[in-house]
Amino acid sequence: MRVIISGAGQVGYGIAEKLSNEGIEVTVIDRNADLVQRVRDTLDARGVHGHGSHPDVLEQAGAKDADMLIAVTQVDEVNMTACQVAHSIFKVPTRIARIRAQSYLSPQWQDLFARNHLPIDVIISPEIEVGDLILQRLAYPGASEIITFDDEKIMVIVVDVKEDCAVVDTPLKQLTSLFENLNATVMGVRRDGEIHAVSSHESLIVGDQAVVGVAKDQIFRVLGLFGCDDQPPTKIVIGGAGNVGRYVAKKLEENEEGVSVRLIENNRQIAQIAAETLEKSIVVFGDALQEEILQEVDVRDAQLYLGLTNDDETNILSSVLASELGCKANFALVNQPQYPRFAKRLGVDSFINPRSITVSRVLRHIRRGRIRGVYSLFEGRAELIEAEAFDTSPLVGKPLREFEMGEGIRIGAIIRGDKEIMPTGDVRIEAGDLVVVFALTSQVKRVEQMFRVSPDSFF
After folding, report:
1. Which of 148, 178, 187, 211 minimizes the number of CB atoms within 10 Å of its CB?
2. CA–CA distance, 300 with 322 (Å, rounded to integer)
3. Which residues contact 351 (CB under 8 A, 6 or more apart)?
4. pLDDT more than 90, % of the chain
5. CA–CA separation, 365 vs 80, rounded Å?
6. How many domains does the chain have?
7. Which of 190, 225, 260 is the last residue of a domain?
C-alpha cells in the first residue's frame, strides 16, 4: 500500500510513524523544510518539500501510484484542495481530510463533499471527536478512557485499580461466579509501566490500569466494582474557549440540565466569540494559570476542571493549580506523548491525546481484511480492534480454548446481532460476528491475519 500524507506536523508525523512502522510505503509532504527533514531522519518514509495541494508536488510524491491521500495540514482549504487535485488529476482511490472549521461540517452543507463537488471520502474533525470523548468521560466518571464499538452495544473502559476495588487479587475466571450475570471481560493491564494481555487465570493488583470490555447497560455496575461510583459533575470550569472548549460547553448547554459551565480564555477575540456563541455559560477573559482568575470563576467549588487550550503546559499546570485551589478533579488535553508519564505524578487525573484519536481514526481506513474499527491505547503501545469474523476465518467454528491466540492478544467481547457475548473457553465464534480484540501493537498484524478472508495467510 502507498500512502501520501500532506502535513508533517504532530498529526501527520504521528500517522506516518505508525504506518511506516507497519511496513506501509509512506511519503510525507510539507512546506516546512525542517519538518520534512525530521521525517527523513527519524522515519522509514520519504519526505517531499512543497505545498501539499500543488499538482507538481503531489506528482513528485508519487500520487500517480498512491492508494490513499491523507491531508492533515493546519489549513482546511489546503486539505480540501489536495483531495480535489488527487481525485481529478491522479485518480487516487481514497482521500481523507482533516477539517476543523465547523461551518464546513454543518449538516445543511453536507453535499459539499459529494464526489461531484469536493471528493473527500473521510472527513476527520479532531475537535468534534475530542469533544465527544470528553463528554463521554463526563457521563462515566471514573474511567480514564472510554471506547465505544458497534453503536455503543459494547464499551471498553480503562480504569485504575485502587484499594477499594472489589475484584483485587481475585482470579478473573471467578468474576462471573462471584458477580451474577456480570457481562464484562478484563482484556489487558498496564502494570509498572508494562502492558500485557491478561488470561483468565490472572488477577488484578492495586496500581494496575485495567482495560475492560463491558456491555453498555452494565458500565455503571462495573465502575462500581472498581470503586468508581462518582456522579457526573454539575459544576465545570474549562480553561480554553477555542474550538474544543466551545464545543463541549455548547453540548453541555444543549443536553445537560442543571450543569454550570464557566470558561477562561486569554485571547480577547476568541473570548468574545465564545461569549456570543454560548447562551448559558459564563466566559471570563484571563489566564487560566493565574490564581486570581481561577478564584474569580469559583474553581474551589467546581467538581471538574478541563484544561482544553492549545498549549500542553498550560493544560497540565492549570489543572494542577485548579486542584490545589479546591477543584475535586481535573482533566487535560495533552498532545505530546511523553507528557503523561510525569503529569500524572504532578496531580493530573486524566488525559486525552488528540493526535492519538486522529491516528486511530485514520487507521480504521487502512487496516486490511474485515477490520471495522481501531483505537490506540497507552501511547500507541496497544490497540483495540473491532473485526468481523468471516466464514473462512480460522477463529470460526471452534471453541475459543482450542484456538492458539498467542501472547499479547485477548478477545474482550463478541457482538452477534442484538446480543453481547463475553468470551469463555466454550464460546464459538460464528461467521458475521463482530469481535472486539485487545492486542499489543507488535501483535496487530497477527490479529489482521486472524480476520482476513483467506485462512491460508494465517500461518
Report:
1. 178
2. 7
3. 144, 331, 332, 333, 334, 340, 343
4. 51
5. 18
6. 4
7. 225
* pLDDT tens per residue, range 347-404: 888 888 887 777 777 777 775 557 777 788 887 789 898 888 888 888 888 899 888 8
> 127 and 153 in contact (C-beta within 8 Å)?
no
In this structure, are 212 and 185 located in the same domain?
Answer: yes
Tell me the C-alpha to C-alpha distance, in Å, between residue 299 and each of 56, 307, 366. Answer: 53, 12, 43
Neighbours of 255 (CB within 10 A): 10
- The grid coordinates listed for 45 are 518514509
Q: Specify whether the CB–CB gap between 385 and 378 falls below 8 A.
A: no
**DSSP states of 60-71 as a string?**
HTTGGG-SEEEE
Q: For residue 136, is it within any domain? A: yes
Largest CA distance in the chain: 66
d(C-alpha 60, C-alpha 57), whole Å? 5
Please report where in the chains the cell 474557549 appears, as a residue: 241
Q: Report CA 189 to chain centroid distance, whole Å.
A: 18
pTM of the predicted model as reported, rounded to 2 decimal places: 0.79
